[in-house]
Here is the input.
Amino acid sequence: MRNLFADYLLQTLQQDSKGKLHQRLSRCLRKAISEGVIQPKTRLPASRDLANELHVSRNTVLAAYEQLRAEGYLETRIGHGTLVVEKLPEIFLNTSDTTTNHITRKVQSSFSLSQRGFNLLEYASAPSQQWGAFFPGTPDVTEFPHQIFSQIQARLSRKPEIDQLLYSNIGGCFELRSALVDYLRVTRSVKCDTDQIIITEGIHQAIDLVSRTLCDIGDPVWIEEPAYWGIRNTLRINGLDIKAIPVDSEGITPQANSIPPKLIFITPSHQYPLGAHLSLNRRKQLIQFARNNNTWIVEDDYDSEFRFSGQPYPSLQGLEAETPVIYMGTFSKTIYPALRIGYLVVPKSLFLPLHILSAELYRGGHLIEQKALAEFIREGHYEAHIRRMRLLYGKRREFLVNLIHRYLGSEYVHEYDEAAGLHLILKLPDDCDDVALSLNAKKRGINVRALSQYYMHMHDVQKGLLMGFACVNERDTLLAFGVLLQCLREVGIPTLS
Here is the structure.
């Protein structure tokens, strides 16, 4: 069977018709090496093998190899065959194709993004590093029972069903949707059937699907202020009119006199990033507002699994019968982010259009992983993992809170904090530049995020640092906190010891 290397040479040989065959072959090889198609230290096929695959004589290949050895592109090592040299000849390094460079510069100078593309780039905030002290929202992925999950996957992968290898156009794996019905009914008081659940690749895709399906360009939508930056960017790229509604200790404050929005995005169980939960009175008020104005509430049940004190709050979706609520969740925080499995629970009237459009837009897949996750849930492993991680994260959170109380004072823990989630807010004075402080800490290997960057408007902005504790053990927390204290002292924030 011909390999990809031979396929490349056959294509380039067709484009070079000048000279003898061994000269054309040497030019093609030289071009592949100089352009990085063949990397330094790569072992080339044996001359006999390459000749057979190119349907040329072995002498033609030998002549091409010898020419490139003479020019310094190849070397022969006993027992290793013919290899590309580690350092290419100086003659190549010092030459340039002026025509190619001119074309490249011309394309670069004329290239431009759409206006909404530029707007999205301006607010892009996805970090390159997402692990370590004190990156917010990252679970301890090393504690997941990978062996159990991989055994389930391996068993399902050995003899997969045909439907599991094709696109999904039914809203995701039926077994996972069924397992979620039982799990959400018990743990979150969500009222739903399997024909109300659509499997997504996470919250971003869920927000994109809902906003594209239920809104036109320019339609008003509400988000919390402050809010997760990712939701703003997804709504921006879809051309929606975003209004940020302030959050207080009881959650979002509905604006009765405002233009009714098409969608209201909220995190009622654990407001992101401040940490408050939406009070019962505010929940009822919000539902009534949505009913009166034909508005959909989109409930992101963020971090609901990780509450370390008090009673868990039921979902907004299950509070009343036939609520105008679209419920969404994900396994990114409970299992690991790269799994890319989330879900929507939608009213039955929305299921058909949403799952059809989901298939049209995203071409669902990962059905074997979804079925493996369904079995993982059915067999009780998921619930056991949640219980274990709740205890672990609770201890790590308590350790960090005690450090803040000891070295800074209790007033530095945000007043909305309710001992839940995977991060907490280190509250800072109003005159503190939390952005500069976070950048200084990052230079020293400490990944905190500035609270002010989560606000859409720059008035009434609270200053602080988001500190994740879930993926950091006590020893590393202590060391990293010492570095952060030094950063705080340098900007004039007093410490207690």
In short: The CA atoms of residues 270 and 330 lie 14 Å apart.
